[in-house]
Specification:
304 residues, 73% helix, mainly alpha
Length: 304
């Protein structure tokens, strides 16, 4: 039983980090009504910027500040040169713009900061917590627990900010109708620039945590793929949904990785390894058949 809880806790902690990546998608979707295909590239760009500044001799705290400045400038530039030209355009046009933006970032980042795989030390050690190991005979990584705490705190702060502030209400209005928001005096350009800046900050934190775990490399762009099942389960417009969806995906992924292959091998023989790579997508597909808008997503009704 202790092994079961060890796997479950590890999955829940990983799920919170998935939620952090999914949060970047949610923020952009709430502001523009489009899936930001460039979110994974933003995670890679932010992490690469930080290690690039550290390679130049900057300490970690200064590299983080400079990385945030870079992502802020990126958000402002995205609004000015991309989104401002596409006000009230169909969502597919905005989606295609984010695809182009993704390829642009993936090419620009290595040009500015290099493309070598580099380690990132943020002061978190990946080792078991002795107190939990001695008391419950369960291995819980100090790094996973700290990273999950950071991710959970950021998600909670942003959830409260967008739920109970004027900016949050303006953001929801912008997502519903760009022209209507402009007609009642909501500064669309400012809202988009702010949201992309916040999404850049989320990408920075995600890049730090995932880069510290797996190294800063191009593979960080694929962390966005881990967030897609989270979004489908939680809902594309819900910050709390990103948390719940991340917990469900993280826990089910780890449990499936351990317990499903032995059952499948006993029934059908053969090799059933690597199930954790595709199980979340199968789960998301089944969930789409039951509740397409997600657990916390708003139902959309078109009147004809």
């Amino acid at each position: 039983m202790s092994f079961f809880f060890e796997v479950l806790i590890g999955g829940l902690l990983a799920g919170i980090m998935y939620s952090l990546v999914a949060l970047g998608f949610v923020l952009i979707y709430k502001a523009s009504g489009v899936l930001n295909f460039a979110q994974g590239a933003m995670v890679y760009f932010a992490a690469l910027a930080v290690v690039g500044f550290m390679d130049k001799g900057a300490p970690l705290w200064l590299a983080l500040i400079l990385g945030f400045v870079v992502m802020t400038l990126f958000g402002i530039a995205t609004e000015k040169f991309v989104l401002r030209k596409m006000v009230n355009q169909p969502p597919i046009a905005l989606f295609m713009a984010t695809i182009g933006l993704s390829f642009f970032i993936e090419g620009l980042a290595p040009m500015l900061f290099g493309n070598d795989v580099r380690p990132l030390d943020i002061g978190l050690v990946d080792e078991p917590i002795p107190a939990i190991l001695d008391a419950f005979n369960i291995v819980v990584s100090r790094f996973d627990l700290a990273a999950a705490g950071i991710a959970a705190l950021l998600v909670a702060v942003l959830a409260l900010f967008f739920q109970y502030t004027r900016v949050g209400r303006a953001l929801r209005a912008v997502a519903d109708d760009h022209q209507a928001a402009l007609s009642i005096g909501i500064p669309l350009q400012h809202i988009w620039a702010l949201v992309w800046t916040v999404a850049g900050f989320v990408a920075l934190v995600s890049g730090m945590l995932w880069g510290a775990r797996n190294g800063v490399q191009f593979a960080l762009t694929f962390t966005a793929l881990k967030a897609l099942p989270v979004l489908i389960l939680g809902g594309f417009t819900s910050v709390p949904g990103a948390i719940v969806g991340g917990l469900i995906i993280g826990a089910s992924e780890k449990l499936a990785e351990i317990y499903i292959p032995p059952v499948m091998q006993s029934m059908f023989e053969g090799n059933f390894g690597g199930i954790e790579g595709w199980f979340p997508y199968v789960m998301a597909l089944l969930f789409l058949l039951v509740r397409p808008e997600g657990l916390f997503g708003e139902k959309h009704i078109d009147r004809v």
